Amino acid sequence: xxxxxxCPAFGAFALSALMAGISVSAHAATIQILVTNLEFSPTxxxxxxxxxxxxxxxxPLAHTATAxxxxxxxxxxxxxxxxxxxxxxxxFAYYCRFHPNMKAALTVAP
Amino acid sequence: MFIRLSAAIAAITLLSSPALAQGxxxxxxxxxxxxxxxxxxxxxAAKQALAKTHNKEVKAFxxxxxxxxxxxNKQALDLVKKLKVTPEDNDTSKTLSKNAAxxxxxxxxLNGAAFDKAYVENEVAYHKAVDSALETQLIPSxxxxxxxxxxxxxxxxxxxxxxxxxxxxxTLNQSVGHHK
Lengths: 110, 180
Known about the structure:
The structure holds 2 protein chains of 2 kinds.
Chain A lengths: L5 H19 L5 E7 L2 E3 L2 E5 L3 E6 L5 E5 L5 E4 L4 E5 L4 E6 L7 E7 L1
Parallel strand pairs in A: 1-4, 3-9
Antiparallel strand pairs in A: 1-2, 4-7, 5-6, 5-8, 8-9
Chain B lengths: L1 H15 L1 H4 L6 H25 L3 H28 L7 H18 L3 H30 L3 H35 L1
């Protein structure tokens, strides 16, 4: 199924990402969101494209951070973390698939 | 439909008034026993579902129930050990267990889509009943702060499961609609 051009294309992409990384790294941040007692904290977070969101799950339960529009779905095993690199600007409502009463939002600036 | 509804009402009535109103205020050892029993019941229901269902969503839901309730019950056991409380069997726990056993017998006679729907409907009703018992009886009666806090977390978990069960039920109803 994979096109033959995958390798060179990936190489070029990796190289440009590497070069881009030099200029972006000064600004890209990692933002932590705690998950405790079935709550995302803080519930509203502002970030920029290129930033990494890291959900730190302190509960003994498995959770997910799942975009309402289905764009991304990050598994958060018990007492473990999961992360996501933000690629698109916009406001994203997300929730936990296992406990849909856990809701929060990310606002991503370009 | 009528059987489902009456089962739900029976479950709610059972948890809200007669069984709990019998004695005076519930003690912490009794509350711990009831909360633990409520988890054990849902694990048993989920294990029955895992053995019977062929539906991917129902299977995933049942797996979530086993995983969550085992985790919470482990926390509950750790807490009672720490507090040196021995959970005490009581009429509410007994009635809960008996009703759950009856429900499992009823479900054991169903198969396929009929089983899936009955299981998930019962999960919605059961979680609603437990939410209500936690909110109106167990949490207000708990004396120990740590037990109260564990019950409050338990309430959020049960509420989450209720919403999850409602979502699964909606997808089951949708697929039934498509076949018609």
